[in-house]
Amino acid sequence: MPEPAVRLYLASTSPARLATLRSAGIEPVVMPSGVDEDAAVAAAGSISAQEMVHLLARLKAEAVVGPAIDGFILGGDSVFELDGTIYGKPLTASVARERWMLQRGKTGTLHSGHWLIDHRGGGVQGSAGAVSSASVSFAADITDAEIDAYIATGEPLHVAGAFTIDSLGAPFITSVHGDPHTVVGLSLSTLRGLLREFGVHWRAGAMSDDHF
Fold first, then answer.
1. Phi/psi class of residue 91: alpha, beta or left (left: φ > 0; alpha: ψ in -120 to 50)?
2. C-alpha distance from residue 146 to each of 46, 115, 120, 184 (Å)
3. Residues whose CB is less than 8 angstroms from the CB of residue 55 and which lie 6 or more positions away in sequence, other chains included
4. CA dist 202 → 12, 22, 198 (Å)
5. 28-32, 89-93, 131-135, 203-207: lowest mean pLDDT where?
6. CB atoms near residue 118 (< 10 Å)
7. Cα(205)–Cα(209) distance, rounded to whole angstroms?
8. What is the pLDDT of residues 49-98, one digit of tens each?
9. Going by C-beta distance under 8 Å and a sequence separation of 6 or more, which residues neighbour residue 144?
10. Which residues are identified as catalytic?
11. Contact 102, 136 (CB under 8 A)
């Protein structure tokens, strides 16, 4: 008999994370976490980029825990690190332009944190987390006009590092070393590894449970 399917709850409103799961055949239940990320980071004090995304992914997953959930909760967060400085979403055109002037012709690292809570049966059974990192290199010949045109689309204002590799920012990326889905914000191979810790296996477009 086939193993029963397991429901995934996504504690994130990121369109890129949702699209990544859907492209892999997983249709999650989207549950916004409402976590105050700035306050959480401020309270944590001096932490590394990897520690930051690990913390925020955990807080987002924990924020949506509730008895109505029967399955796994996934929290995620991403930041871009360039020359030792951590960058999140620029939010404004002026900040995005400053970022692009800095990263043009350089290589930085995109860190994506993942936190998975086993909430099968309506209660927390356990949890596990992991961080996936990938380096991203930008073309050195990107013109100011190209940067301005890209920023004018609005896309880079709402993504970590002010760029995408799966949409309008892709032509400016010369190489990615590591799991490309990490740069999108959700490493599918990392998620698969976390699920395996709880006896759940990836079955070509579904997650199935050995325990039931």
1. left
2. 36, 36, 48, 22
3. 40, 41, 44, 47, 113
4. 21, 14, 12
5. 203-207
6. 22
7. 14
8. 999 999 999 999 999 999 999 999 999 999 999 999 999 999 999 999 99
9. none
10. 77
11. no
